Amino acid sequence: MNPKGRPEGESAAKRAARRIVKLSRPSTWAGVATFVVLFAAWYVLTTLTQTIGSGRFPSPGETWEAFEQIALTGYADARLVAHVLHSVKLVLLGFAAATLVGVPLGLAMGASRSVEAFVNPAFLLIRPIPPLAWIPLAIVWLGLGDAAKVLIIWFAAFVPAVINSYSGVRTIEPYLIEAARMLGVPRRLFVREVLIPGALPMIFTGLRLSLQACWTTLVAGELIGAIAGLGHVLYQASLDIFPAMIVVGMAAVAITAAVMTIALGVVERRAMPWRSTR
Amino acid sequence: MIALGATDTLSFRRWLALSLAGLMAFFGIWWITAASGAVPPQFLPTPLAVFERFVALTQSPFVGYTLQQHLASSFGRFALGFGLAAAIGVPLGLLMGWFRWLDAVVTPLFDALRFIAPIAWVPFAALWFGTGIGGPVLIIFSGAFPPCVINAYRGAKYVEPRLIEAAQTLGASHLRMIVEVLLPASVPSIVAGLRISAGLGWQSLVGAELIVASSGIGYLLVKGQSNISTAIVMSGMIAIGIVGFTIDALLRMLERRINRRRGR
Question: What is the pTM for the complete model shown?
Answer without folding.
Answer: 0.82
